[in-house]
Write a structure and sequence with these properties.
2 helices
Length: 93
């Protein structure tokens, strides 16, 4: 797998995650799973956490149908000492 993928080409989500762990990616013309996960799409851009908010606002202004997703989510490890604690992760379009 190359160190970087070519912008404007179609890739599977697995390919993108492998090359860009911990990054935000913008993809267009996506094929989605039933739960709106990305199967594959055209890579539009790759961004850091600091850049993601600006890109999301640009997409909103453009009324873009592109998807902006973080490839991997890191969780800290620790102990929670409370009754009925729960953690949720939402994938919102």
């Amino acid at each position: 797998m190359p160190k970087e993928l070519e912008i404007g080409k179609r890739y599977t989500w697995e390919e993108v995650v492998e090359v860009y762990p911990g990054k935000w990616v913008r993809m267009s013309d996506c094929n989605l799973t039933v739960g709106s996960g990305i199967i594959d799409g055209i890579l539009v851009g790759v961004y850091t956490d600091d850049e993601s908010e600006k890109v999301e606002l640009e997409m909103w202004d453009e009324e873009s149908k592109d998807k902006l997703r973080r490839t991997t989510i890191g969780f800290g490890v620790g102990v929670i000492e409370c009754l009925n604690a729960r953690m949720e992760v939402k994938d919102e379009p």
